[in-house]
Amino acid sequence: MKIINFDDLKRFTGLGSGSKSTDKQPAPSKVGKVLVLDGTNVVGHRVVNRLVKGGYASNLRVGMRDATEKMQWEGVEETKFVWENEDSYAEALKGMKTVFVTIPSANKNWDKHFPAFLTACHDAKIKRIVKLSFFHAMQSRAENPKHYFGDPEYKYSHDDFHKVPLVHRHALCDGDLILKGLDCTILFPSHLMSNVLAYQGKTLDQENKFYGASKGKGVNYVSPNDVAEITYLAILHPKAYRREGVSLLGPSPINDSDVAKLLTSCLGTKITYEEKPLDFFDEDSAGLESIKASGLEEDEKFPKGDFKRIVGREPESFEAYLAARDCMSPLELKIFPQEVTSPVEENEENLQELTTEKQVEGNVEETAEHHVEGIPVKETEALKSEGEVETKIVDVSAATEEVHVASQ
Fold first, then answer.
1. Dihedral (C-alpha) 325, 327, 332, 338: value to the nearest 10 degrees?
2. What is the DSSP string of 96-124?
3. pTM of the predicted protein model
């Protein structure tokens, strides 16, 4: 594995130079089979949703670590895929044309398995790979003038960024993917807006806080909805994104105290941002917080990214991301109280029919003044004992693992 630059390979067109939007939607037969790895994280979930909405459910196979987990998508095939189990690769890749790869942040050794994964893709005759990376995995011109890897606008020298394990692993795997010679598209988003919901749900719910170490600097957060939209286009239009790198950045830098205000408005509870020392976080998260605290992303010369050029609109704001709850993955939605309605309507209808029949037969006394939501008290008590009646607000915010704000 080595970090290389797209420009070092003549067959690679360069960062975002040729990718473009198109209104023409190809037929499912033209798209072929698509494997999404995996469908449970914030970007993978959205990509599956987008493809299903576009009419490509029959094209999809979703790789899941736990293949027994029930999926919400009808007509979508599910398969077991575990990064550390290289024996799971061949079956998951069988018959696929395109693979979209997101990397689970919980797996610290995925980079060790990535070369074997690429070999399995080659053996399975995969036509192309779309990989999710990270913006700062690109190496700047100043760091390595002859072999810089990344955005031509990114001319800052920040060698420390590649000391962050997550960043360096992405850079190595991106280089390996390019050198393998497979047709690929690599997406380089900045910090995902979903990080605070996905990885700090416990502190948001129990302490009404979220933690960071950005030192009041502006952070470039990008919406996972925008990342999923570009992924969707890259999957459907391979010629427009062939051997392309696409940088995906947010509309403007925002500091974390302002993010807390947006969360307060969204959740209806006062949320406070609290600055923590770096040793409070795990290694990856501490490194990413250091990138935020560098102030690079609030520099007026910081790149604008490729989203507007490709899609024709401004990147989604943090406020708009939080409002688009219907796009969110189960991981993000854990923080929101969910209204869970038991089958009251069905029980009401059935019980009312039963009550009417019994009243006609003269077997039931009038119980109108003792009804609860239209269900006789005795029947209600019986159903309550089975936990089937009351509509209630259930806080489904699950206890998450240790504070982790890794971008992918």
1. 50
2. -SEEEE---TT-TTHHHHHHHHHHHHHHT
3. 0.77
CA distance 363 to 357: 9
**What does the H/E/C string look like for 256-320?**
HHHHHHHHHHHHCCCCEEEECCHHHCCHHHHHHHHHHHCCHHHCCCCCCCCHHHHHCCCCCCHHH
Q: Which structure tokens are listed for 40? A: 């449970």
Counting every residue written for the chain, the total comes to: 408
Q: How far is CA 17 from CA 179, 181, 183, 321, in A?
A: 20, 19, 16, 27
Q: 245 is written with which tokens?
A: 């790198």
SS3 229: helix
pLDDT in tens, 321-376: 999 999 999 889 988 876 443 444 444 444 454 444 444 444 444 333 333 333 33
d(CA 166, CA 137): 9
Amino acid at 321: Y
Is 129 in a helix, a strand, or coil?
A: strand
Within 8 A by CB and 6+ apart from 356, the residues are none
Contact 168, 383 (CB under 8 A): no
Model pLDDT, residue 119: 95
How far is it, in rounded angstroms, from Cα 267 to Cα 204? Answer: 10
Round to whole Å and give the CA distance between 321 and 361. 58
Q: How many CB atoms lie within 10 A of CB 183?
A: 16
E strands present in 176-263 = 183-189, 191-192, 209-212, 221-222, 244-248
